Amino acid sequence: MSGSQSSLREEIRWWAGPLLLAAVALAFDAIDRGIPFGVWTTGPVDEVAHLSTAALGLLVLARFIDAPRRFYVAALIASVAIDMDHIPLYLGLLGNQAQRPVTHSLSTVAVFAAAAAVSRRYRAVLAGLATGLVLHFARDIAEGYPGVRVFWPLQDTSWMVSYRWFLGMIVVFTAARLVLAGVGLPRTRIPVFRTSSPSGSVPRSPDVSAASGDRHPGLESSTLFRADRHE
Length: 231
Description:
This protein is mostly helical and 231 residues long.
C-alpha cells in the first residue's frame, strides 16, 4: 500500500510542479502589468514572475542534461540577481533611467559563457549564470517599454515583443515538460560539467550519473534540489 501511495505522490509531483510554476509566472506577470511602476511595488512582483519562469524553463532543460545542483542554483539566482544592475540608475549615478542598463544584453551572457569555457572548477556555476540570464532577458523583452538592448554594443536598439511571446514561453515550457516526462523522453540525459575520477580513467558527472530508461516522469527534477556530493 505504501508503495502505491509513494507512486501516486510521484505522479502528482511530476505534473503539479510545472503547472504550479506556470500559474505563478502568469499570475505575477499579470499583477506586474496591472499596477503602477514602483521599485517597492512592482519590483518584488516582477522578480517572482522571473524566478518562476526560469524554474519552469530549467525543468525542461533538466529532461535533457544531467547537471550538478550548483548549475541550477546559479541559474535561479542569476534570473533575479541581474536586476541589481538597476540600482545605479535609481540612484541617479549611472546611465539613463529611461533605458535598461547595458548589462541587460547578450554581452553579459557572452562574458559568463566565455568564463565557463576557460574555467574547469567553476564551469557549472558560470554556465548556470549564463543560462539564468538568458531566461531573464527572454521575459524582459515581452514587458514592453523600454525593451532590452539585446545586441549592445553592436546595436543600441531596444528590442520588444508582445505579451504573446511570454505567454507562448510559458505554454511551450509547460507542455514540453509534461509531454516529455509523461512519455519518458529522452531515455537518457547528457552528463555535463564532468570531472575526472580519482583514478583519472573514467570521467563522470560531479553529481549522480545520467538516468537511463527513466520510467519515473519528473524524477530528474530533483537534481534542482539534491545535495551536490562533489561540491
